[in-house]
Amino acid sequence: MPKSSKKPLMETKDLKKSYFSSAGLETEVLFDVDLVIEAGEFVSIMGPSGSGKSTLMHILGFLDVPTTGNYIFDGQDVSGFSDDELAEIRGTRVGFVFQSFNLLPRTTVLQNVMLPLMYNNNDSAAERIAKANDAIDQVGLTDRAKFLTNQLSGGQQQRVAIARALVTKPDIIFADEPTGNLDSKSGVQVMSILQGLNEKGHTIILVTHEKQTAMHSERILHILDGRIDSDKSDFKKIHAKDISSLK
Amino acid sequence: MRIEDSVKTAYRGMRANIFRAFLTMLGIIIGVGSVVLMTGVGESMEGVILGQISSLGAKSMVMFPGNNGPEEGAATARPGYDSLKFSDIEALSKLESISNIAPIVFIPGDANYGRESSSPTILGTNENFFSNQSIELEEGRLITRADDEKVKFIAVLGPDIVEDLFPGSNAIGKRIKIADRTFTVVGITKPIGTQFFQNADERIFVPLSVAKSVTGQKYLSYMTFEAVDTFDSAFSDVKYVLRKRHGLVNPDDDPDKDDFTIRSSEQAQEILGTVSLALTVFITFVASISLIVGGIGIMNIMLVAVTERTREIGLRKALGAKSIHILIQFLIEAILLTFVGGVIGASLGIFFSWIAANIVHQFLASYIFAISPMAILVALLTAILTGLIFGINPARRAAALNPIEALRYE
To answer: Fewer CB atoms inside 10 Å of the end CB: C or N, chain A?
Structure first.
């Protein structure tokens, strides 16, 4: 994943998403979204609640399909993919970080991080443990691998979630309000890790409503009423502290 | 996805709520446990009954008058009760396919010694009865051919009669009253126990000629004998002779057209086998109700688990789990519940069979601990099947969840 490649990784054409009520009434959430994201980009999606930013992330993250229009991922049109085909892409090419961490309780850090390797994967148990430990190292939690997730602080839990997103070595990491439930210091740590991962070549898509958080990326998309309102990259990027200072 | 991952995940799901898992399993534990216990008891009882049958002798046969099977005694005989004549015995004794013929004539009434009284079954018979029924002598002597020929009023008592009439004293040589006649006790038989639900130790044996003279009876109450070679040849020879002598035409070998009924110890085994099969079917039916109730409990708790773990399901799907992975995870969890419940139930069933055997053995020496491996296997497989059947609906619900909605679920 060299950062210099200018081949579009994700491309949407006339993307439209509607929800239908049980009475058949149509509610349009996204209109004619045309978007190109290249491999290695760090993109923030901003917008007020109800703007459709979550829906856009779900479609881009293969959790949902557009009603009409096309989504071309890595040269492949995935708009008509089945649930299982989407699941396979999620399991192999994408990592998710959620606002509420979504870790399994009463389960160790190592087991949580190994979870994505359970599906769509034929590695041996030893290989999986090695990959998981590697991902845990990357988020600076090596000495916490055997801890239960509920014994960790919020910031540490979110770092476990990042390690879990990393473990499959995905092309893209989706982070949905990753700092929303964290104190500012932990938030900075999380943003620092995400910036570090971006530097290593991972494409990162961040959904947030905080300007300050979005400023850690290189490009900010504003979504308003289901449309891309603005697409800016001419701002001064904030550099979070280096990950090495966390340890 | 690997099967061991599914099992481990399911195991963790079960461990997370171990007490609830146990309560959920209870129906399965009781169902499987009762099947294993009841079939074990059945197996032990069958051993007891087979032991009684084999105590009769492997070649033992019996013939009753009439064609409706065994009768309780001459006093309650139905039409056809007088169909077997003494002259029939003479003809049958010429057959080479049967031997050891013992005709029996019942004497109705009680036996008394002084003020002691007893209500035994009183049989007039010959020396062959003791050998073809494997009755052994405890003390004194058995009935001989000479006793029969000389019409001697002697009696051989079963051990329970001795206890009734001679508590704590010697019976041999004493004179007892049967049907207002006086008999001298010459022998006591060894204990036998229960045979065909009757106490075989509550009998008094007197010579056949004596019974004939006391009752004036011109026909047999029944007779016992042994097959020399096979039961088949014994059956066909006896039938041939009796049909010819009684003027019966029965080319179809229809037992309803005969005026006699013959049974072999082999048939007795078959009849008891049928009875125990019927019992097993009944027990299985009762147990299957318990398994169905248990299965509904499993389904209920799995539906709860799916709701409780909606977010986890959403997460797993977001991380790449396909519907089939989620389906298998919840199905295995349901099967694990029923399987573990089945193993616990089977263990308890075996344990209680063993306890029951130890207790019953004190009263019934031939009752020995036994379990039916087939029943355990079938019960366990049924438990697993219950998990599969009742787990499929919750598992499908879990698999059908939309990842976005599941992740948002509070």
So the answer is: C
pLDDT grade for B287, boundaries at 50, 70 and 90: confident
Q: What is the pLDDT of residues B44-98, one digit of tens each?
A: 888 887 777 766 667 888 888 887 644 444 434 445 678 888 899 889 989 999 9
Instruction: Say whether both B211 and B238 belong to one domain.
Output: yes
Is A241 contained in some domain? no
Whether chain B has a CB inside 8 Å of the CB on A96: the answer is yes
- As for how many domains chain A has, the answer is 1
Residue range of the domain that includes B31: 3-53+270-408
- Token pair of B355 as six digits: 């306890």
| Look-up of token digits 């009755």 | B135
Q: CB of A116 within 8 A of CB of A167?
A: yes
Q: How far is CA A134 from CA A20, A71, A89, A129, B161, in A?
A: 44, 32, 22, 8, 89
- Nearest CB neighbour to A87, from listed B315, B322, B407: B322
Task: Determine whether the interchain pair A90/B324 forms a contact, defined as Cβ–Cβ distance below 8 Å.
Answer: no
Cα dihedral sign, A185-A187-A190-A194: negative
Whole-number pLDDT of residue B68 = 60
B402 in the same domain as B285: yes
User: Is B198 found in the same domain as B115?
Assistant: yes
Count of beta carbons in the 10 Å neighbourhood of residue B254? 9
In whole angstroms, give the CA distance from residue A225 to residue B70.
Answer: 95
Note the pLDDT tens digit of each residue in B296-315.
888 888 899 889 889 999 99
Q: Which residue segment(s) compose the domain that A170 sits in?
A: 8-235
**Residue B263 domain-assigned (yes or no):** no
For an interface test with B, the pick among A81, A118, A164 (most B C-beta atoms closer than 10 Å) comes out as A118
Q: Is the pTM of this model over 0.80?
A: no
**ipTM of predicted complex:** 0.91
On chain A, the residues whose CB falls within 8 A of the CB of B404 are 58, 63-64
pLDDT over 90 percentage in chain B: 39
Interface-testing mutation among B315, B329, B401, B404, with chain A (most A C-beta atoms within 10 A): B315
Q: Which of A64, A87, A104 sits opposite B404 (nearest CB)?
A: A64
Residue A245 lies in a domain: no
pLDDT value at residue A2: 46
pLDDT the model gives residue A242: 55
Asked if residue A246 is part of any domain, the answer here is no
